[in-house]
Amino acid sequence: MRLQCAPRLLGMLVLLLGLWILVAPSAAQQAPQPPAAPPAATPGAPPSAAGAPAAAPQPKIDSGDTAWMLTSAALVLMMTAPGLALFYGGMVRRHNVLGTIMHSFIIMAVISIQWVLWGYSLAFGPDVGGLFGNLSWIGLTGVGLEPNPDYAATIPHQAFMIYQLMFAIITPALITGAFAERMKFGAFLVFTVLWATFIYDPLAHWVWGVGGWLRNLGALDFAGGTVVHISSGVSALAAALVVGKRRGNGTEPMPPHNLPLTVTGAAMLWVGWFGFNAGSALSSGALATSAFVVTHIATAAATLSWMLTEWMARGKPTVLGAASGAVAGLVAITPASGFVGPLSSVVIGAVAGVLCYNACNLKTKLGYDDSLDVVGVHGVGGTWGAIATGLFATKAINDAGNNGLFFGNPGLLGVQLVAILATWIFAFIGSLILLKLVDMVIGLRVEEEHEIAGLDLSQHNESAYALGITGTTGFGAGLSLPKH
């Protein structure tokens, strides 16, 4: 009987959606017009397919915008570590917590170097056929302290570069939740560099780079629904399929070992996400304010809808469920955050909580082992967010965007579906190829005895919780790998 309550709640949300369709036109008429948005070339606000962008203002550094962007960059970096590191670290078993945290931590270093040497140029450099940037900015050549009006006319080019770096860092870190507890550390490093180079950087250019084909098509992705969340969620599915299930999956209990860590990480993600979404306005004005507001509202709605759905289905609300619901709401509002108003964000978040809860529960039926529900939260949540952008976007919020289906323009929904499909196909097939390549060369998965001992010991010779353990005083004190 309890399992039948979740569809009822979904029906209530659909009814809410229908009511919103009825009131949307009048809401649009009442919505105040904000000051002019940043230049149409801004990655977070691509030009409307319906007309030519307005002339860009003369480039001039604004200290307020620069301060906001540097603060936003720091907030987004905090999302990876400690935010994601703790969120994922608390959900694995205790002998894998350090290995899981290490994934997020070391990615900050690896992708930073990759981005400086060639990643930024591939993602945002001068266009090559709408597919990627050329290498004229390799090693940050030509990326100086003056503004680049193609991307942000009021902040130094390096401020824009470092802000975009933080997106490039967290995206592959999200994928690690799918193969937690069973991938070799060396294989993880190689795959991360390859994935960033051949999947993330081209996709970022498609959507945000000047000349990118999805940008030219008119696809809207304010802060990373396709570039970050769909790409990581789909790639996580490929990784779960190629690496295979954890030893004992389905037959042994694998509960989170430290939920306080997970909730702390989720709270840090919630705070850091304001830099993720509001920072994508690339200025500290009205558009950033709007994105900040709808990000918080959608997250609150998703937290409540996930909690209520789980409560009805299983009889009790869980802390893990509330934390997961918050992340689902953050994911779903990301692509729409610069294009929708507060009431729309309530619907986007509420639907995301129900949708992602049910998607996460499907993995056992479908037979794949996505350790930390990357597919269900980021893949499904990001897809819903991109669709919702095509439904709820309105030029009353951002004149540099477009109107969606509920505001009289069904064409935007079609463009969004093209962007979603292209991202799914490119990220999934590309990730499969890269994973197979790494597996053939160095092998992806740890040996069985190493998986039993845990990745903390087998990959790093350390233990997260050494209290009460006797023996040697070095790393891995009192512990040893099983003998052959």
Description:
By secondary structure, the protein is mainly α. The chain has helices at residues 5-30, 63-91, 97-124, 157-175, 185-208, 213-217, 225-243, 259-277, 286-314, 319-333, 342-360, 363-366, 374-392, 410-441, 448-453, 455-460, and strands spanning 127-128, 132-133. The protein starts with a helix and ends in a 24-residue tail after the last helix.
Task: Please supply descriptive tags for the structure shown above.
484 residues; mainly alpha; Ammonium transporter fold; two-stranded antiparallel ribbon; 62% helix; globular; disordered C terminus
Strand element count: 2
Helix content: 55-70%
Q: CATH superfamily, called what?
A: Ammonium transporter AmtB like domains
Briefly note the structural class of the backbone.
mainly alpha
Per CATH, the class reads Mainly Alpha
What is the mean pLDDT? 89
Question: How many separate structural domains?
Answer: 1
Low-confidence stretches: 1-53, 469-484
Give the SSE string.
HHHEEHHHHHHHHHHHHH
Give the number of helices.
16
The strand order across the widest sheet is: 1-2
Report, as a whole number of angstroms, the end-to-end distance: 50 Å
Strand content: under 5%
The dominant shape is: globular
CA radius of gyration: 22 Å
CATH architect. name: Orthogonal Bundle
CATH topology: Ammonium transporter fold
Largest sheet features = 2 strands, antiparallel
Short description:
Helix 7 (225-243) packs antiparallel against helix 13 and helix 10 crosses helix 13.
